[in-house]
Design a protein that fits this description.
By secondary structure, this protein is mainly α. Helices cover 73% and strands 0% of the residues. It has a domain of 53 residues. The N and C termini lie far apart (50 Å).
C-alpha cells in the first residue's frame, strides 16, 4: 500500500474542510460560471448561486481551469 505524502494529506484536509452541505456538480457550475466570472471581474458581490460556483471552483480543478480560461478571455476584451 502506497503512503500519502505530507503534502497530499494537507491537500485532502483542505478539500474536506471546504465541503458544504449542498455542493454544485460540474454541470451546475458550468451553467453559472459566465455570470460568476463577469461579476467577479466587475467587483460585484457573489451571492446565492454564485457563492456555490465559487465553492465548486475551489475543489474542482477541471472547472477551475475552464473558469481561468474564460476569465482570461473576458479580461482581454
Amino acid at each position: 500500500m502506497k503512503r500519502l505524502t505530507p503534502q497530499q494529506i494537507e491537500g485532502l484536509i483542505r478539500v474536506i474542510g471546504q465541503t458544504r452541505e449542498h455542493e454544485f456538480n460540474c454541470a451546475e457550475c458550468q451553467s453559472n460560471v459566465s455570470e460568476f466570472a463577469e461579476r467577479q471581474i466587475a467587483g460585484l458581490p457573489l451571492e446565492g448561486t454564485l457563492a456555490g460556483v465559487e465553492q465548486h471552483l475551489t475543489v474542482c480543478s477541471e472547472c477551475r481551469e475552464e473558469f481561468l480560461a474564460l476569465e482570461k478571455i473576458l479580461r482581454a476584451s
